[in-house]
């Protein structure tokens, strides 16, 4: 075997540049699986974005058209609203219908009732759900997994199947024999037992390292102090999301308040609007205005906290 030395460069001549190495592009760890590959996307770029735009437009119209019909229906005249051939754009505008509906339908009264029920239900539900989730996650009770499994199994039951047992429980509370009809507790106590909120909170609490709680325990902090000083400050994202879920559920609920709030003065806004719609004293345009006013707060809440909702649900891990 003979070794040949590389040719020497004559003096005064610049050395030839080394051949460039081909860089191997590694897609591992950076590429992600998609429905359409990058090559096909470049070939059919216009077709792809055309189909995507049409799909988004159709779904937007499907979801927003009922809102548009409700808002514009309120500003029509009663004669125009009652036509057999509907008009998509009002021929005459009557925005004063909203002020008339606010006064004649006593929306302020029922709006205050709904805010009161939603606020109380939020406080009680958060207190119960946080306590149950903390006990199942960190206190590790006996048969804790069985209790959690039974709670999650209740999510498989249709809500209509639970109406009769829940109503009988509210009419005559076991052990106490108290009738809770026409009281806020008829709404607050059933809403506090929410298996979905407990599961979301427990999953977040499981990601909090036990070392933090052990260090606090060595310093003399009890279980309640650990919950108040460590668990709750770290759980602000998921607590915000759970709070939004509770308030929205309390605000939009109709069937259960209809059953347990039989006194007209104590009814929520949704129940009162349904009751007033059956009377001949309320024109249909004023009823549409009342529906628009009732839906406005929750739309504003979603538009403000939509990022918090998505971020809170996905916040389930902590960096070590």
From TrEMBL:
Region feature Disordered, mapped onto this chain: 1-28
Acyltransferase as UniProt keyword: no
Keywords for this protein: Cell membrane, Membrane, Sugar transport, Transmembrane, Transmembrane helix, Transport
Main location (coarse class): membrane
Record-level GO cellular component terms: plasma membrane
Key word Lipid biosynthesis present: no
Pro residues composition bias: residue spans: 7-18
Mode of membrane association: Multi-pass membrane protein
PROSITE patterns from the UniProt entry: ABC_TM1
Highest rank taxon of the organism: Bacteria
Record protein name field: Multiple sugar transport system permease protein
Organism: Pseudosporangium ferrugineum
